[in-house]
Design a protein that fits this description.
Blueprint (H helix, E strand, L loop, with lengths): L27 H21 L6 H7 L4 H7 L3 H12 L17 H18 L1 H13 L1 H27 L9 H23 L4 H16 L10
Helix pairs in contact: 1-2, 1-4, 1-6, 5-8, 5-9, 6-7, 7-8, 8-9
């Protein structure tokens, strides 16, 4: 699905508290060390989980001392925030941005679904990590909720716009439809790319797009995964 840049003037909240990103480097060498720690932290978090991950393992993965870790981050929360801050632009949310009058709405929905499923597949382990952190950290849970609500609101606006143009069923509640369709796509991605299934990206794009168009009452040509 589209990323933050597709929300036009409607700002999407950051996935993390930007005040908790640790120290920022002033030199090229410092940037290399900090970047290595962030990459190592993602590897360790995805491998061991948030709760069981250890700072010494992150430092070892980055091939640096624990002292170097503390130069840039005070604790595990800060390096996690840095990991998510760097990854969030690639961790898209289910839905679609504004569909212009010259656009084919079904083609736009299909393209949005494809972008979301491919991004979810690339970041499947990190998406599992997000659920783990949300379960134990109320601050992160609230940030994630606010971010999700912003994307649902964007989807709701897109649906309402289609209704006003006579392209979608006007009896459908746009906000509830946005919540339901976004949730459906997110759960489908989780079941296929985390739990595991035989379905391909093409399979889930085709099915999710047909469910979107059926739910909104859009005119339906033959749907194709591409």
């Amino acid at each position: 699905m589209p990323s933050e840049r597709d929300t036009a003037t409607h700002e999407v909240p950051d996935l993390v508290d930007v005040e908790r990103l640790g120290s920022l480097p002033q030199t090229a060498r410092g940037k290399r060390t900090r970047d290595a720690l962030i990459a190592a932290a993602r590897t360790v978090f995805e491998r061991d989980g948030y709760v069981d991950s250890r700072l010494v393992d992150i430092a070892a993965e980055a091939k640096c001392s624990i002292g170097s870790f503390y130069t840039w981050f005070d604790n595990k929360d800060e390096v996690l925030a840095a990991v998510l801050h760097e990854a969030q632009s690639d961790m898209l949310h289910p839905g679609t941005g504004r569909i212009e009058t010259t656009d084919d709405p079904i083609a736009i929905i299909a393209a949005s679904n494809r972008a979301y499923f491919e991004a979810f597949r690339r970041n499947a382990k990190l998406n599992v990590l997000l659920q783990q952190v949300a379960a134990v950290d109320p601050r992160f849970r609230e940030l994630r909720r606010a971010r999700s609500e912003a994307f649902v609101a964007r989807n709701s606006r897109a649906i309402r716009d289609l209704q006003e143009r006579g392209l979608a069923d006007r009896d459908v509640d746009p906000e509830l439809a946005a919540m339901a369709l976004s949730g459906m796509v997110a759960r489908l991605a989780y079941d296929v790319f985390v739990i595991g299934g035989p379905e391909t990206v093409d399979d889930v794009v085709t099915t999710a797009t047909r469910l979107w168009t059926n739910a909104l009452g859009l005119t339906q040509p033959v749907l194709r995964a591409d």
